[in-house]
Amino acid sequence: CWASQDITGVAMQPDTSTSSEKPWSADSQRPIYHVTPGPNFPSWLNDPNGPFHDGSVWHLYFQYNPGAAVWGDMHWGHATSPDLAHWTVHPPALLPDMPYDKDGVYSGSVSIVNGRAILSYTSVLGDNQTQSFAYTPKGGKVGWDWVKDPSNPLLSAPADSVNSDEFRDPTEFWHGSSGELLFAVGAGRNTGKLGEVLMYEFVGSGEPGEGGYVRERGTLYEGTDLGTMVECPDLFAPPLDGRQQVQTSSHGLYSFAKGNSEDSVWLLKGSALPQRLDLYIAGRMNQNGTKFTSLGGPARLIDGGSIYASKTFPGTDGKRLWVGWSPEEQPDDIASKRGWQGVMTVPRELTLSSDHPGLLLANPADGYEAVRDGAAFEASVKLDAIEQTGATLAPQGELDTLSFHARIDIRLSRPLEDGESIAVGIRGAQNGPEATLQDFNGTLVKLNDKEMVVDRTRSMSQGSISEQSMPLEPGIGQVEMSLLMLADASLVEIFGPKGAAVITTRLYVDPSMNSIA
Hints:
Layout: E1 43-53, E2 58-65, E3 75-81, E4 88-94, E5 105-113, E6 116-125, E7 128-135, E8 147-148, E9 162-175, E10 181-189, E11 195-203, E12 213-223, E13 229-236, E14 266-273, E15 277-285, E16 292-294, E17 300-301, E18 308-314, E19 320-326, H1 332-335, E20 340-341, E21 343-344, E22 348-352, E23 360-364, H2 368-372, E24 379-383, E25 386-389, E26 392-395, E27 405-412, E28 421-429, E29 441-447, E30 451-455, E31 468-471, E32 481-488, E33 491-495, E34 502-506
């Protein structure tokens, strides 16, 4: 995105310096099993870019400033994982080294088409945003070696309708029967204050030295549901009831060569400006994949917390995965002193609810299990017993303190009754052994049959202490109410029942604030 201002597994930098030479390694606020910026210090991380599987390992790229812990000088950072659980951070994969992208290589995507890797990105020169492409050269290593198209930039903003500084973040999603690659670009219309997603067709050999070209395919979406500028758009059809709605190629691109049912439910996701929220709307696609029609109703939140510029990507066996950037919630002059800023969430698996049309469910991807049972979690607790205090149900268990890097799994095997709620205190300090939740100095996570809330007003966090919330649609908790929390230093990811509500929150407290209640 444009700004002016390991998932589970240890994602440490591949250098050999001692811990005394790495001040960030002793920073109690830096997560240890989520991807954070590297390998340079100081450095900055924002939008995830182009996640894909090359047949052996997962690649995750991200917006990266290798020279300072503030936004600027955008490169594509690079991390890899064998299992979506244990990550290694590498030197940058894409640099701003051409005249047309000297002011930044911004967000984009990676796709495998006919055995070749194609990378699309926003190339920036001054305020002018254009779209450019790169490929894996012959004899090169997929995911590691990139050669930029000699004809770059291949696409400029439509001069009559879109400002050149509001045209970015290409995302490929459709592989046509003739081998064409359709991709969408987010935009802001310069008249009428409408957000747009524009559709294009890329045609190219993917060979260095042989330039590609782009054709217009029209306007995929226009409206205000996703803001007046749609950043980081994504269009996808998540599995429903355990089955794929739309067939995909071997590398996850949707393919109308295999048919597209007009009954399939598609989701159009955008990072909305000026709201700075990640939102999605449900709709239908036409047969050739060039027009999205909303089913109606308001846009829904993907995450009710500290998330922006997220990215979906194809998983294995038809799954759809998601990863998001969690920005720091401290002023730059405070956060940058630590020498790093920005964290990736754990990858999440996305599915559609079978009971609530168009409702997205998000839960930790399978790779999370590889570390959940391993050493990356210093402590883990599963609490089944619930103590009732009036209308508030508080979890009870042997653990009354919680490691700074841990998980909490709470399940109530009955639906909540009217007026009841579950409340859990985390990252806090209790006032004596007989203290109640009302006495808890920390963050309260509250769940009822209508919403999930993270109340940070008594958190003593050295950052934002605003309340965060996400609605629950009626009936979601009728079978089982549950909370899953992944705590990792200053980052806590909270999953409500079925993944129907998710809140990512940032808490900057002393490690001694480890009580739960």
